[in-house]
Design brief:
Number of helices: 10
Structural class: mainly alpha
Radius of gyration: 16 Å
Length: 186
């Protein structure tokens, strides 16, 4: 509640600070994903990504990667909340493919994570398991242990073993592993 109040009190974007609108929207979607208010996350965030491109701000790789990753997560969350939103999996997979082409290992790992979750949503468990394993390996090589644990946790769900990766998240300081997983890899 306090985080949402602070966000609502934050300054709005203007012509002189267009990125403020992106970061504000990104923060709102992160809150929605973490708190389980996922239903409209994609509908609210997708126009923000289009606006980034229109302003030319998508030329900055960090911003582009964050926008693609967040839009893909919002799409996956919408599908998880409402199976009628299943066509959004195509957008998540497109964003995942673009992330994998960014030329940076960390972006490739994000793309593999998203692709694995999309495949899992489609019921393609063998392929999902492989992509999630690949994501965990890429994150492990780049020192991104929390993301590696997330990929491993999602992969272990396919295998029916939930405890070990969640315990790793708790040991790392994550208070609510289920909410964290829904935030990072819906």
């Amino acid at each position: 509640v306090r985080a949402r109040q602070q966000l609502e009190a934050a300054p709005m974007a203007s012509d002189r600070a267009p990125m403020l609108g992106f970061w504000r929207a990104a923060a709102a979607i992160q809150l929605d994903l973490y708190t389980g208010d996922r239903k409209d996350a994609f509908r609210r965030f997708a126009p923000t990504v289009d606006q980034l491109a229109a302003n030319g701000n998508d030329r900055v790789q960090l911003i582009r990667v964050e926008a693609l990753y967040l839009r893909a997560r919002a799409a996956l969350a919408a599908v998880a909340e409402d199976p009628g939103q299943r066509p959004l999996l195509a957008q998540a997979r497109t964003d995942a493919a673009q992330l994998q082409r960014e030329g940076r290992r960390w972006a490739m790992g994000l793309g593999l994570l998203i692709e694995g979750r999309a495949l899992q949503s489609l019921g393609l468990t063998a392929e999902a398991r492989e992509r999630l394993g690949d994501a965990a390996a890429v994150f492990g090589k780049t020192g991104m242990e929390m993301l590696a644990a997330v990929a491993q946790a999602r992969r272990s769900e396919i295998d029916g073993a939930h405890d070990e990766p969640r315990i790793r998240l708790e040991t790392a300081g994550v208070r609510n592993p289920s909410a964290w997983l829904d935030l990072v890899a819906p």
